[in-house]
Every structure is written in C-alpha cells, then in structure tokens.
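[step 3/7] inverse_fold.run input=structure_tokens len=325
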C-alpha cells in the first residue's frame, strides 16, 4: 500500500476504496492496530469483525450474544482486544483473545454502563469511564484495577484519552450549570493520578462526548453532542478554534485527527457524509459521500493514507491516484 502525504489536495482526492457489508446493525466503535495492519470493529448486532488492511479482507467474525460489545480497543498485541459489554446486569470490560476466541479475563469494577475505554499507547495499562461517575485505571499484566477517580459532581458519562507519550491522560464529563451544562476537562499525570488532576478547565459548550489528542501532542480535540468541535491547546487549555460547519443534530457522530495532526474528520448528517477540516483554521477542506446511513465512527490509519468510517457498513477511503497527478 502506498504512503502518501496528507495534504489538502490528497484529501480532496479521497474516494471509496472498499465497502464491507458484514453487519446486521450499526457499528458502534472501531480501532486500528499499533502497526496499522489490522482494524477491529464492534457492532450493535453483538459481533466483532477483524480486517486485514494490507489484503483488504475480513479475517474473522466473533460474537458475544449474551453481553453485547462496545468501545472496542486493540491491545498492543494484534490478537487481543478489550471491549465493554452492552447487556446484562454487570458492566464488564472483556479482555478477549481473537486467536482462539477466548475471554482471557473479565475486568469488574464499574457499577453502570461503560462509556469510554482508552489503551495506553506505550504500555499495558488502560483507562475506562462510565455512567457510574468513576474513572478506573487498569493493568492487563496484573489483571486488576489499580485505582479509581470519582467525578461525583458529573451529571452524565465521562470520556478518557491518553496523550501520545502515555504519560498524561485527560478526563471530560458534564456538570450542571444552572439551566445549562458546562464541561470539565481534567489532566492527570499517570504516575501520580491518585493525587488528583494537575490541571482543570471548564467550557460552556454542548456536552462533550469524547476527546482525542493529536499525534504531535499539541492539540486536544473535544467533540460534542451538537454541531460543535473544540480544538484546544493541549498544554494550556486555550481554545484554538471551533468547528461548526457540519450537521450533528442527533449527537451521534465522533471526530478524529489525521496522523499528521493537520486535519480532522467528522460524520455529518447532511447527505450521510464525512467532512474534513483544517485543524489550524477550522476551515472545511472536503466532504466525502457514499454511506447509506450516518457514519458515526471514524478513524485514520497512522501508517497508510487510509481512513475508515462506519455506519452499518464499513468503508475504507483512499486517495484516487489519478486525481492526485
């Protein structure tokens, strides 16, 4: 697979490379492997699908009919992943081997549904947050929870994200503000998270649904349940720009940085499209069309010029080389 630099021109040349119609319900999360050769998806039809990026094929399909699957994240081993459950009385995180379709371990500790899972980019620790207003810090090697941080003043689910170094993580959650909602973002040092956050910021904006650090560590993307994405300075918390030129009336779409940190992409209810924006100016670069339903999940491959998006279908987007010449 060719490696092409992400520029405004190459992004305007993006087109559908392959469409997979393997699911009977919407895909609720997806994740590329560390080496960029695999992609894993979880769906509301209780399935996990694993794709080979280099071959452009589906390699495996697994099911968890009893508990459902959500918030899927590959570990640092391509044959193992984490996912949260959607059904049943227990809110579990399943550590799952795709090699032999075996649950290695069930992580227990949340008392309500899990809203976010994030794998540390450099080691075998991971974070989760849930509607129980609790952030949990886990270790795959110890197979246990190492500690909790409560956000009892929150009024909804939280979301977590590691920075690229794996030394810092961010937590966001909504709190009541008279007749409106404001959002609290807290930054933690991974080695001293028990001491609480070293930085805390508040934003009066629609409820923030998720966070993502840029790969250069300079920016923090906060996507909301409305037509608003905040781009923040990851060190100071100052607002760099706000992206609004898309439609998210149902609050379902997420957003993601390009690996070069220069662009971001989000789903858009207008024409069931995807919109790419410049991460510096917030200006629209291009709109992609081809999904039959709203694409709520998006992710960029860090090694190849490839983007994945999902509604019920999974779509791989690649540059049309004829358009780049």
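[step 3/7] decode complete -> sequence:
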């Amino acid at each position: 697979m060719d490696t092409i630099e992400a520029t405004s021109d190459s992004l305007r040349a993006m087109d559908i490379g392959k469409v997979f119609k393997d699911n009977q319900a919407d895909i609720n999360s997806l994740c590329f492997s560390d080496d960029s050769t695999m992609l894993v998806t979880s769906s509301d039809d209780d399935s996990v699908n694993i794709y080979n990026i280099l071959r452009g094929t589906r390699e495996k399909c697994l099911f968890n009919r009893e508990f459902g699957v959500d918030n899927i994240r590959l570990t640092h081993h391509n044959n193992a992943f984490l996912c949260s459950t959607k059904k049943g009385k227990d809110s579990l995180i399943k550590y799952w081997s795709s090699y032999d379709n075996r649950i290695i371990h069930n992580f227990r500790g949340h008392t309500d549904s899990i809203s976010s899972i994030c794998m540390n980019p450099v080691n075998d620790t991971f974070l989760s947050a849930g509607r129980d207003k609790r952030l949990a810090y886990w270790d795959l090697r110890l197979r246990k929870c190492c500690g909790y941080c409560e956000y009892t003043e929150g009024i909804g689910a939280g979301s977590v994200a590691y920075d690229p170094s794996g030394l810092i993580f961010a937590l966001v959650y909504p709190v009541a503000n008279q007749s409106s909602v404001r959002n609290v973002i807290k930054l933690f040092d991974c080695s001293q998270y028990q001491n609480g956050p070293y930085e805390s910021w508040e934003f009066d904006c629609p409820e923030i649904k998720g966070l993502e650090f840029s790969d250069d560590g300079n920016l923090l993307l906060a996507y909301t349940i409305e037509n608003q994405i905040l781009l923040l300075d990851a060190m100071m918390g100052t607002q760099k720009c706000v992206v609004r030129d898309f439609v998210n009336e149902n609050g379902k779409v997420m957003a993601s940085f390009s690996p070069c940190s220069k662009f971001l992409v989000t789903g858009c209810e207008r024409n069931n499209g995807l919109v790419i924006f410049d991460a510096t100016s917030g200006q629209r670069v291009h709109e992609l069309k081809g999904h039959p339903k709203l694409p709520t999940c998006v992710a960029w491959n860090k090694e190849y010029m490839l983007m994945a998006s999902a509604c019920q279908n999974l779509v791989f987007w690649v540059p049309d080389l004829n358009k780049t010449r």
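[step 4/7] annotate
The helical segments are 8-12, 321-324.
The chain has a mean pLDDT of 96.
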